[in-house]
Design goal:
With 392 residues, the chain is an alpha/beta fold. Helix content is 37%, strand content 18%.
């Protein structure tokens, strides 16, 4: 059976229109060879359940958003989601498919499906995030029993999960180098950034409990002549808790296509993460994106940034505000050298999303082929195949 003839149903806790990251990169590449249905978490409205379906014009991915009746119990919500998946399968004539999980919680409504293969792409330790359901760990343990393949989004996460499943594979954050390398040539400043003075230190990503708010506050207070630009949505924390200052600029969520223009106007890309349970296993996608953009990069000592980026001298590590300021002062005066950019490019040449997708695709193909051969080799299937051939 050709993998190209098998659909892919992706069950995600992240919305397609949210920050463009790992799910969008991978699903967009799968959609070049097969139908991909990206099932988001539901919206709730006082109406009869239905499916919102939009085909992404850039990738061809079918983005499916279930709309459920509001104020139902968790059990009834799961039943409604189960019916939504059945409707999706019937509407699109889905027969053979790979089931791809980003959240183990989706087991509540998908555990009865019969896919050709089950993939769990574990991009974060979701149980450590703020507001994580207490039953998430149990669902993940069950998913480890059901999945054919487990992918992890970083080395520390791989070390944590590799003993829990017989086929765990490390696929750390990749990068679209041609896209972000546009920032190495000065772009026209976007309108909402053009008025911000230099030097600029920027952050692009979700602003949530993983960010070290006190570090940002202390940096801005210590260096009022530096300007801190933050791109991305504020989620799971009160926006009123964020530091406010004339040299801190919250510009909101930006489209993926516009990011190089913003990054080209920065001197430093920041990874100002707090050191807590929610950041213990993260492997920030923005690390290689900043590097591809030709930026100096400064990070707090996040494990998957220290190794390999810090150890290879591609990213500076700062443990506190005073270290951050000392490193930043040097970096602002010394843009990346040609030698550093050459070393960065050599490193990133092994980290493309195309290569990541290709390796994942090969693993899935092997699983599907093996399971198909096993089914054909069973007595019932062999007999049915022989009887079918006799009528040809």
């Amino acid at each position: 059976m050709s993998l190209n003839s098998i659909d892919l149903i992706c069950l995600s806790h992240l919305r397609w229109g949210f920050v463009f990251q790992r799910p969008q990169h991978l699903m967009g590449r799968f959609a070049k060879t097969q139908r991909v249905f990206f099932l988001e978490e539901p919206l709730f409205e006082p109406t009869e359940p239905y499916l919102k379906a939009v085909r992404c014009p850039d990738t061809g991915v079918h983005v499916i958003t279930p709309v459920l009746r509001s104020l139902e119990s968790p059990k009834e919500n799961a039943a409604q989601m189960r019916r939504s998946v059945s409707t999706l399968i019937q509407m699109h004539g889905i027969e053979n498919f790979v089931l791809w999980y980003y959240t183990p919680m989706a087991r509540q409504f998908s555990s009865g499906l019969k896919p050709a293969a089950i993939v769990y792409d574990c991009m974060d330790e979701l149980s450590a995030f703020a507001g994580a359901p207490p039953e998430l760990r149990n669902h993940e343990l069950a998913l480890f029993q059901e999945a054919d393949l487990v992918f992890t989004g970083g080395a520390s996460l791989y070390r944590s999960k590799r003993t829990q499943h017989p086929s765990v594979h490390l696929f750390p954050s990749s990068v679209d180098v041609p896209h972000f390398s546009r920032a190495r040539t000065r772009q026209q400043d976007p309108e909402d950034q053009a008025h911000i003075p230099f030097p600029r230190l920027g952050y692009a990503g979700v602003i949530d409990e993983r960010m070290d708010i006190d570090l940002l506050r202390n940096l801005a207070a210590a260096r009022p002549d530096w300007h801190f630009v933050l791109l991305g949505p504020v989620v799971k924390i009160d926006p009123r808790s964020l530091p406010k200052s004339e040299n801190i600029h919250y510009l909101g969520l930006k489209s993926y296509s516009d990011l190089p223009a913003y990054l080209s106007g920065w001197q430093i890309g920041m990874l100002p993460f707090a050191l807590n349970e929610s950041t213990r296993f993260i492997s920030p996608t923005k690390t290689p994106e900043y590097l591809a953009a030709g930026l100096r990069v400064i990070s707090t000592p996040i494990q998957d940034v220290v190794s390999p980026y810090g150890e290879f001298g591609l990213v500076d590590i700062a443990r506190n505000a005073s270290e951050f300021i000392r490193v930043a002062e040097r970096s602002i005066k010394s843009p990346p050298t040609r030698d550093l950019l050459h070393r960065i490019d050599n490193f990133l040449s092994h980290s493309s999303w195309d290569k990541t997708w290709s390796a994942m695709n090969q693993l899935i193909r092997e699983v599907v082929d093996t399971k198909c051969a096993t089914r054909i080799g069973t007595p019932d299937v062999a007999q049915a195949t022989a009887e079918g051939m006799a009528h040809v």
